[in-house]
Amino acid sequence: MADKKAWLSFSDREDKIELAVHSGTVGPDAVDIAGLYRDAGVFTYDPGFLSTASCSSAITYIDGDKGILRYRGYPIEQLAAESTFLEVSYLLMYGELPTREQLDDYVCKITHHTMINESLLRFFEGFHYDAHPMAMMVGVVGSLSGFYHDSIDMNDPQHRELAAHRLVAKMPTIAAAAYKHNVGERVMYPRNDLSYVGNFLQMMFGRPCEAYCVDPLAERALDLLFILHADHEQNASTSSVRLVGSSGANPFACIAAGVASLWGPAHGGANEAVLRMLEEIGDASQIDKYLDKAKDKDDPFRLMGFGHRVYKNYDPRARIIREVCLQVLEKLADSNNPLFELARRLEERALHDEYFLERGLYPNVDFYSGIIYRALGIPESMFTVMFAIARTAGWVSHWMEMWDDPKHRIGRPRQLYVGADRRDYVPLEERRD
Ligand code: ACO
Fold this sequence. Notes:
By secondary structure, this protein is mainly α. It is built from 18 helices and six strands. The radius of gyration is 24 Å and the shape is globular.
């Protein structure tokens, strides 16, 4: 893979270190520094991984400057228009679009793994009635490890595949059970006659006392949101899954780590934060005030749903979501939705503002998704959970890819130590302020 070379020289040394440069299919080359400490006795320093490729991957490609996102080579726009979430999850996991037979088989497997053990259901009773659903997700997903001993031999590819199927299948069931716990309703069991998303909607909004009819518009809108959130290469949560998995931890523990990482407001928690922000802004007359706050370095306020580590252009997912948002709101006779109007005005103002333009800050995937979720009746506390359901497809695919790589090893970053040098212990009675 290494056909180019780079040389590293130091101001205080004569010698030069030769480094291999790897080229991917598309995208920037990567300088191979794996042997740098061995050859030159130095580490590289890159907090936040601004320029560091932590692995090679064939799953997702992003060009943040051009606003390109592809899963296994297929443009996100085509998948959003033509595919379904389960087909996309197959594509991410196995690398190719399935034939009709393969897809039917996959859908059947996922559908038949949606139930969770009754004992696991009782875990929810231990949570406070108003526990955040992401808190329940982190705990319950991790606890799956205690139920599926037949799929945690990481050296067995069939175990890995079975665990991946279980995770994709059970996430909506766990998510809906967390919601039911919050609202004090009985958990609805999965129904095998419904689609992945239709089943999730019935587990969320169905009640034992009446039949639940899936609204095809809600089903399609949510399926599309799941496609758009399914993977995004080495983001914080996916990297967490890989890092935890690199130690040989079981997949349920790895995905629980992904859920925990996703929860943060700088990552998946942003969709919840966007709605809170729009409500705080209140109406268009306040936009300038909040843009000033976002630009003020002494003010911690940031425009939520704006900016991205990789996209310095319009996030292609945000563009699609904005369109769907309009369709959903129109069909649900809610086209005068004040939050959507406010979001559009805010976006327009920010995109004409030097501060945002100079820094390449555009709406990201989360800017409009919360408005659609709310129109579908999904409460704010469940927004990040929606993201977690979808991203599980990406997490398990990366985790499987890592295990398929014969060169994979435990992830163990190094550090630039800036603490105290060696010093001697001082007995307590001799210490002074
Ligand atoms: N509002 C105001 N200013 C911002 C914003 C924002 N949303 N985002 C970045 N900036 C500014 C920073 O202050 C910084 O300015 P400076 O160069 O003058 O110091 C510059 O833009 C670069 O920002 P960084 O924080 O260095 O960018 P980074 O890549 O580390 O952060 C992040 C990306 C976390 C997404 C950031 O843009 C942010 O906090 N956005 C809001 C939260 C959000 O929407 N997160 C969801 C991301 S998408 C996802 O995870 C699904």
